[in-house]
C-alpha cells in the first residue's frame, strides 16, 4: 500500500469509514517526496527517538520508523487508530499514543519511551495548533531538533528578520530559544483535501545557551509589550503594555540610553537591542 497514493488513500479510508474533520485540520499527504525530505532534513538516525504529532494515516511515521530507533506518534482523532493499526502493522519500533499533545506530560513521555536515545520531534502539524504545540516543544527543552511542516506564513514569521513585516513577538521567542531554518515549501496539491495555503517545513535547533544575558521573564515582557500595538512607537507601546513599569520618562530615558531614536518602533529591534532595553529598564 502506498500511503501517498490517492487511490490507496481513498480505499484505506473507505474500509474504515473515515471522514475528514475540518476542526482537526486534517490534510493527508499525497506526495511521497515530502516525508522523505522531512526525515532527511530532520537528520534522523538510529540514535534518535522521534515524537510525531498527528500522524494521520502514517506516511511520515513509516519513513521515520525506517530511520529512527523508535517513533512515538500522538494522535488525537480516535477514528484514525484502526487506520494506523493497519498501515503501521509490523513496525515494532512505532507506538501510537491516543491523546492530545497539549495535555500530555512531555517530560514523562520522553523519559518513559526514549531512554538511552536522543529525542527529536518531527511532525506535519495541524495549522490550528501550530503556535501552542511549538511553544510546548520548545519550552520543554527535551528535543535535539524540532522539524515541522506548518503554514508558510507562520514559518516566515518564525524566521523573519528585524524590520520586516513578518517579524514579531513569536519571531523573537523562537529565535531566542532556537536557530530556525527554512528547509522547503510544500504546495497545496500535495495534500488531500488540498489546503488553501502553501506549507513550509522548518527545523528548529535549540540553542546551547541563550544568545544574550538578560532576565528572561522581563525580556519577554518587554518584547510582548513592544509588539502589543504595532502601529505605535516603541515608547508608546511600552507605556501601554508594561503597566506599573510604563512611566513615560523612565521609558524615554531607557530608549535613549540604548542609542535608539525616540520614534523607533518595536519591529526594528533585534534580540540584542531588546536585551539592552530590558537591562536599561530594570537596572
Question: Tags for this entry?
Answer:
283 residues; alpha/beta; two-stranded antiparallel ribbon; 9 strands; elongated
Biggest sheet: strands, sense, closure?
A: 7 strands, mixed
Strand order, sheet with most strands:
4-3-2-5-6-9-7
Work out the helicity level.
Answer: 40-55%
Instruction: Enumerate the spans where pLDDT stays under 50 for 5 or more consecutive residues.
Output: none
Structural class: alpha/beta
Strand content: 15-25%
Gyration radius, rounded: 21 Å
Give the overall shape.
elongated
Q: Could you give the count of β-strands?
A: 9
N- to C-terminal distance: 63 Å
Order of helices and strands: HEHEHEHEHEHEHHEEEHHHH
Q: Characterize the quaternary organization of these chains.
A: single chain
Tally of separate helices: 12
In round numbers, the mean pLDDT is 94
Write up this protein.
By secondary structure, the protein is of the alpha/beta class. The strands form two sheets. A seven-stranded mixed β-sheet has the order 4-3-2-5-6-9-7, sandwiched between helices. The radius of gyration is 21 Å and the shape is elongated.
What's the short story on this structure?
With 283 residues, the protein is of the alpha/beta class.
Tell me the layout of helices and strands.
Layout: H1 6-15, E1 28-29, H2 33-42, E2 48-53, H3 59-67, E3 70-75, H4 81-87, E4 94-98, H5 106-113, E5 118-124, H6 130-140, E6 146-151, H7 152-159, H8 169-177, E7 178-186, E8 191-192, E9 199-206, H9 216-228, H10 234-241, H11 248-257, H12 271-282
Parallel strand pairs: 2-3, 2-5, 3-4, 5-6
Antiparallel strand pairs: 1-8, 6-9, 7-9
Amino acid at each position: 500500500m502506498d500511503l501517498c497514493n490517492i487511490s490507496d488513500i481513498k480505499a484505506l479510508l473507505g474500509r474504515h469509514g473515515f471522514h475528514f474533520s475540518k476542526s482537526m485540520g486534517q490534510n493527508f499527504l499525497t506526495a511521497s517526496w515530502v516525508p522523505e525530505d522531512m526525515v532527511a532534513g530532520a537528520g534522523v538516525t538510529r540514535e534518535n527517538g522521534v515524537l510525531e504529532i498527528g500522524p494521520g494515516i502514517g506516511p511520515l511515521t513509516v519513513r521515520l520508523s525506517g530511520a529512527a530507533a523508535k517513533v512515538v506518534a500522538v494522535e488525537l482523532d480516535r477514528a484514525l487508530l484502526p487506520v494506523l493499526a493497519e498501515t503501521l502493522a509490523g513496525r515494532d519500533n512505532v507506538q501510537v499514543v491516543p491523546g492530545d499533545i497539549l495535555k500530555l506530560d512531555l517530560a514523562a513521555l520522553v523519559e518513559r519511551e526514549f531512554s538511552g536515545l536522543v529525542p527529536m520531534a518531527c511532525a506535519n502539524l495541524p495549522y490550528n495548533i501550530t503556535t501552542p504545540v511549538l511553544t510546548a516543544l520548545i519550552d520543554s527543552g527535551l528535543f535535539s531538533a524540532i522539524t515541522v511542516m506548518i503554514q508558510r506564513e507562520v514559518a516566515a514569521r518564525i524566521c523573519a528578520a528585524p524590520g520586516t513585516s513578518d517579524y514579531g513577538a513569536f519571531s523573537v521567542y523562537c529565535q531566542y530559544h532556537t536557530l530556525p531554518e527554512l528547509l522547503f515549501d510544500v504546495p497545496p496539491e500535495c495534500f488531500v483535501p488540498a489546503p488553501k495555503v502553501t506549507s513550509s517545513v522548518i527545523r528548529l535547533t535549540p540553542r546551547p545557551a541563550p544568545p544574550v544575558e538578560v532576565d528572561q521573564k522581563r525580556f519577554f515582557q518587554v518584547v510582548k509589550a513592544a509588539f502589543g500595538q504595532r502601529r505605535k512607537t516603541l515608547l508608546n507601546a511600552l507605556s501601554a503594555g508594561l503597566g506599573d513599569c510604563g512611566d513615560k520618562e523612565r521609558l524615554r530615558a531607557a530608549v535613549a540610553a540604548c542609542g535608539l531614536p525616540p520614534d523607533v518602533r518595536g519591529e526594528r529591534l533585534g534580540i540584542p537591542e531588546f536585551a539592552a532595553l530590558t537591562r536599561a529598564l530594570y537596572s
